[in-house]
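Data availability (excerpt). All sequences and predicted token strings are deposited with the supplementary files. A representative entry, Reverse transcriptase, is shown inline so that the format can be inspected without opening the archive.
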Amino acid sequence: MEDLQTRLENTLITKTDGDATIARLMAENEAYLKIIQSKGASHRTPEHPDPEAFTGEDPTLLPNFLQHLELKLEMNKDWWNSEPQRMGYVVSCLKGKAHDQVRYNIKDGVVLFDDVNAIKSTLQSAFGDIDAKATAQLKIFDMKQGHRSLTTFLPEWYAVAKLTEWDSGALIAHLRRALHDNVIWRLSHEGQRYPYRTWSIYGSCPYLR
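Structure token line:
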């Protein structure tokens, strides 16, 4: 009887020690996970701004949206572990008509496109300019500086000019036509006194490179 009681006590002690060991190991594991998670967070790339949601209401906003989207995906590429996660993020940036173009290929929260490029191609087909060069060539004919400053007008003009794929000679001719008469007069006046300065404004202008 005493032997049985001793064995029972030893069994209970062993069980208690085992429970304590399990509890200790669980606590150590939890602490280790917290350390790993904190290290992972500290090594995560800083958040890059999200692109403004694209609705499709203004198709001309698509190029800027795609550019900002690509920057986000590249600058924070460690935020997503798989292509489905990347696609999920892209879809979350679409609203209204733009989202309608991709919703058919989303089932039970899973995006079924092959990859992000497939989603971008769908948006390009629906909202993109199929002939951006021709559009730019037509638009540049209507561009005039008016009473805007050069610092305002030139970037807008250049954004269109670079899409025309025209050479510098053609672009210089169009820029002369687009600038305000007072600016042309000043440049011509400067050209008579300092020919190199006028060339530096036109021929070496960063907007014509």
